Amino acid sequence: MSKPVGREPLRRNARSNRARILATAREELGRNPDVTLEELARAAGVVRRTLFGHFPGRAALLEALAEEAAETFRNAVEDGPEPGESAERALAWFVLRMWRVGDRYRMLVALTRRDLGSERFAEVLAPAREAATGIVERGQRDGVFHTHLPPAVQSASLMALIVALVESVNTGALEDDGHRIATATLIAAGVPEARASAVVEEASAMATALPAHGT
C-alpha cells in the first residue's frame, strides 16, 4: 500500500512547530513567567490552534519543558571530569557545568516547583542530585568535605543551596556567571574559602572546554 502523499512533510512541519514553540517558551517564560499561551503562539509565529494541538494547556507545555530540562541535565552530568579528578574540582566542575547548561532553564526550575509540584521538581533535578551524591561520597572519603551528614543528605542540602542561589539570580538579587555559586557550594561542603575560590578558577577552564548540551 502506497504511503499517502504529503504525510511525511506534514510530520516534519509538526516537529518543527513543536520545537519552535518550546524554544520560544523557554525564552518568553524567562522574561515573563506569567506569559499566556496565546502570547506564546504569537511569539512563535504559529496560530493558537497549532500551539494547543501540541500543548493543550500550560501544564502540558511546562511538562514538556521539564522533560527537556531533565534530559539536558542527564547529558551534562554524563560528561563528567576524569575519574581520578579530585572531589573538590569535580564538585566545582559539576556546579559550573550545570550552570552553563541550566542557565536557559533557570526560570523553568522555579515554575516547575510552583506549577507542577515538588515531586516533579525533584524528578527534574534527580540526575544532578545523583551525580552530586557520588562526588560528595568521594570528598568525604578523601577528607576534603564535611562528614557530619550522610552523603545523600549533604548533596541534597547543596542542591537546595544551588537552587536558592539560582532563584536569587532570577529575582535580580544576585548577579553571577556560575563562579560565585560554585564557590559557595564548595564552602558549604567544607572547603576553606580561599581554597574554594582557587579550585573554581581551576575547574572553570575544564567546564568551558566541553560543549554545552542543548545549545
Keywords:
75% helix; 215 residues; mainly alpha; elongated; single chain
Note down, in words, how this protein is organized:
The chain has 215 residues and is mainly α. Helix content is 75%, strand content 0%. The protein contains 10 helices and no strands. It is elongated, with a radius of gyration of 20 Å. The relative contact order is 0.12. The model has no long low-confidence stretch (mean pLDDT 83).
**What's the β-strand tally?**
0
Strand content: under 5%
Q: Please compute the radius of gyration using only Cα atoms.
A: 20 Å
Q: Span from first to last CA?
A: 40 Å
Q: Which overall shape is indicated by the principal axes computed on the Cα atoms? A: elongated
Structural class: mainly alpha
SSE topology string: HHHHHHHHHH
Q: Please count the helical segments.
A: 10
What is the helix content? over 70%
The main β sheet shows up as: none
Query: Which residue ranges are poorly predicted, with pLDDT under 50 across at least 5 consecutive positions?
Result: none
Whole-number average pLDDT?
83
